[in-house]
């Protein structure tokens, strides 16, 4: 009894369907649509994962950049301190035992 209903339903589906698709094409269409959904879902997951990985790399690179900028600023301050005339005079006095000559120690040479 139920087999007759299925056959009747299939025959009406074949005759009433507006696109002239046969009943046998439905499983193929459904499989193709299912595979398209699975592939699309996989691509969405892969893209999301790649985005998160790249964002983590971006954060790490920005942190490294900030650290390098801090070090660069410290080096610039240190360079400024090392090149001041007072620092140069102090090193010349302590290490090289240099001193500013007295007025009596200066000789003027004329051409």
How would you sum up this structure in a few lines?
The protein has one domain.
Provide keyphrases for this structure.
about 110 residues, mainly alpha, about 0% strand, rod-shaped
Report on the structure:
This protein has helices spanning 2-16, 25-82, 85-95. It is mostly helical. The longest helix has 58 residues, at 25-82. The radius of gyration is 43 Å and the shape is rod-shaped. The mean pLDDT is 85. Part of a complex composed of FtsB, FtsL and FtsQ. This is Cell division protein FtsL.
DSSP E strands, number:
0
Basic shape = rod-shaped
H and E order = HHH
Main sheet makeup: none
Q: What is the mean pLDDT?
A: 85
Distance between the termini: 135 Å
Helical content, roughly? Answer: over 70%
Per DSSP, what share of the residues sits in E-state strands of 2 or more residues? under 5%
The DSSP helix count reads 3
Overall tally of domains: 1
Radius of gyration: 43 Å
Contiguous uncertain segments of 5+ residues: none
Secondary structural class: mainly alpha
